[in-house]
């Protein structure tokens, strides 16, 4: 995967991608704004969500042990995974122990993070995604591009062709007369998945939340596929990031108001499934939880960056981000795209790769992501913090640009130097074109003018106007 600047150029050249992503994010953005405006206490709910998450992360070791005890007492088994390799070994071993060669999956973002499907395939085990969007991505041999809607980069016509060409290779084929009508597409997906639900003996899930006091896991979804995965198989394996904990059911109530409004723009999720341990003759009889670290402990140790672990994966920040809206999610090189991915990935994976070093710069720092975040993650602050970290660990990212910024810092550091620069800039107006804009500026400023128009500076600066009309401000 190329670094973000190169990947973004490719994405920007794809007009169909920009149309698909732009239309979808605008729709979700509008729905979210409408349901959030219904609540007079939204700001207080947001503060409560942030406080609960911050408290839990501060005492995470205690809550993890409490959760393990509760799961064990309820008849489940807890496994601890330091990294992706260990998590994959645990899950693969558990599936092999059942003697089965396939699993159905739901809420699998953490499993995509660790590339579990690939690890299972190497062990001869087929993993079937059951979320509609993730099914589209899997059948199309694609990668997810959005936290909430992994196939947001596809339109209905493209989905129809994927179903017609690839569904038969993985099970029940799509009808020969399939159209791009959403009802027909959903019907084809249900027929295809129903066979797998009825046959599968093992399911793999993620979780939106894990309740420490009771050992309960929670999945919220819109299609019912989660309910099928969580109730019908004989064995259930849940892969859960250690940051997903909340202390109690009372705390969970806050997030079940924040999450649906921030993600799908709904007042309540159509399906909210909770499960606690094992009950005789009711649901899976063999239940395992794999608690995944995979860089989260390192992120927790960062005083500024740790707030990224408050994320509840709602995707609100993606839907308002002007950068994501134009590039889509693949340019971020991770299952976590958009603003939250730009701060989460470099902390989980480190900054050794070109992809992760570039991500903190994949933002205009406009602050829209912070405004909509339901748990008040200050993403712009973390982005600036990570840019500093990248520079400290790897040196200047762009020597000419850094030199230009250093010169600007020197100029802004003294009033007299700034006033001189303003007079020089005003004198340069005569080189602007008739439209009052410059053409291509010399490097490194050409990096700006190659993509944008540079307006000519004002004939008179504010300082000069004030001095002329009000007297010397000094």
Number of helices: 23
Architecture of the largest domain in CATH?
3-Layer(aba) Sandwich
Low-confidence stretches: none
Summarize the biggest pleated sheet: 6 strands, parallel
**Count of extended strands:** 12
Radius of gyration: 25 Å
Identify the strand order in the major beta sheet. 1-10-7-4-2-3
What is the oligomeric state here? single chain
Please state the structural category.
alpha/beta
User: What name goes with the CATH superfamily of the largest domain?
Assistant: NagB/RpiA/CoA transferase-like
**Average of the residue pLDDT scores:** 93
The separation of the N and C termini measures: 54 Å
**How would you describe the shape?**
globular
CATH topology of the largest domain: Rossmann fold
Q: Helix content range of the residues, please?
A: 40-55%
Strand content: 5-15%
Domain Lactate utilization protein B C-terminal: 422-468
Domain 4Fe-4S ferredoxin-type: 308-377
Protein name: Iron-sulfur cluster-binding protein
Pfam families: Fer4_8, LUD_dom, LutB_C
Topology of helices and strands:
Layout: H1 4-12, H2 15-36, H3 42-58, H4 60-73, E1 77-81, H5 84-98, E2 102-106, H6 109-113, H7 116-122, E3 126-129, H8 132-139, H9 156-170, H10 182-199, E4 202-205, E5 209-211, E6 216-221, H11 225-231, E7 235-241, E8 245-246, H12 249-263, E9 271-275, E10 286-292, H13 296-300, H14 316-320, H15 322-327, H16 338-349, H17 354-358, H18 368-372, H19 379-394, H20 399-412, H21 415-427, E11 437-438, H22 446-449, E12 454-455, H23 462-470
Parallel strand pairs: 1-10, 2-3, 2-4, 4-7, 5-8, 7-10
Antiparallel strand pairs: 5-6, 6-9, 11-12
Helix pairs in contact: 3-12, 9-10, 16-19
């Amino acid at each position: 995967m190329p670094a973000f600047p190169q990947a973004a150029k490719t994405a920007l050249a794809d007009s169909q991608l920009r149309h698909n992503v732009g239309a979808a994010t605008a729709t979700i953005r509008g729905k979210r704004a409408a349901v959030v405006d219904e609540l007079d206490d939204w700001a207080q709910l947001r503060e409560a969500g942030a406080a609960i998450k911050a408290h839990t992360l501060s005492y995470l070791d205690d809550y993890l042990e409490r959760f393990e005890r509760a799961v064990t007492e309820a008849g489940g088994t807890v496994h601890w995974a330091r990294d992706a390799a260990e998590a994959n070994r645990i899950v693969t071993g558990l599936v092999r122990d059942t003697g089965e060669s396939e699993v159905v999956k739901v809420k699998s973002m953490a499993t995509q993070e660790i590339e579990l499907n690939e690890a299972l395939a190497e062990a001869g085990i087929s993993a079937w995604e059951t979320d509609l969007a993730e099914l589209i991505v899997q059948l199309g041999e694609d990668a997810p591009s959005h936290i909430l809607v992994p196939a947001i980069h596809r339109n209905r016509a493209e989905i129809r062709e994927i179903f017609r060409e690839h569904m038969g290779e993985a099970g029940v084929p799509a009808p020969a007369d399939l159209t791009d009508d959403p009802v027909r597409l959903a019907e084809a997906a249900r027929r295809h998945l129903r066979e797998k639900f009825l046959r599968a003996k093992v399911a793999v899930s993620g979780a939106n939340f894990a309740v420490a006091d009771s050992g309960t896991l929670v999945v919220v979804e819109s299609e019912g596929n989660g309910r099928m995965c969580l109730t019908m198989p004989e064995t259930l394996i849940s892969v859960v990031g250690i940051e997903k904990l909340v202390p109690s059911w009372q705390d969970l109530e806050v997030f079940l108001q924040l999450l649906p409004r921030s993600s799908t723009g709904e007042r309540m999720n159509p399906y909210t499934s909770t499960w606690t341990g094992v009950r005789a003759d009711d649901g899976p009889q063999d239940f395992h939880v794999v608690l995944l670290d995979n860089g989260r402990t390192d992120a927790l140790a960062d005083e500024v960056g740790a707030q990224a672990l408050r994320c509840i994966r709602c995707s609100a920040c993606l839907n308002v981000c002007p950068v994501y809206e134009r590039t889509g999610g693949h340019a971020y090189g991770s299952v976590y795209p958009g603003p939250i991915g730009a701060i989460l990935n470099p902390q989980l994976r480190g900054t050794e790769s070109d992809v992760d070093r570039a991500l903190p710069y994949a933002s205009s720092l406009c602050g829209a992501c912070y405004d909509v975040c339901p748990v008040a993650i200050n993403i712009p602050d973390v982005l600036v913090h990570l840019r500093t970290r990248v520079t400290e660990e790897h040196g200047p990212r762009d020597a000419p640009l850094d030199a230009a910024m250093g010169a600007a810092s020197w100029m802004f550091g003294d009033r007299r130097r700034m006033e001189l620069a303003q007079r020089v800039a005003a004198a340069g107006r005569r080189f602007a074109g008739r439209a009052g804009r410059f053409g291509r500026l010399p490097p490194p400023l050409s990096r700006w003018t190659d993509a944008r128009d540079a307006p000519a500076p004002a004939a008179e600066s504010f300082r000069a106007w004030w001095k002329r009309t009000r007297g010397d401000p000094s």
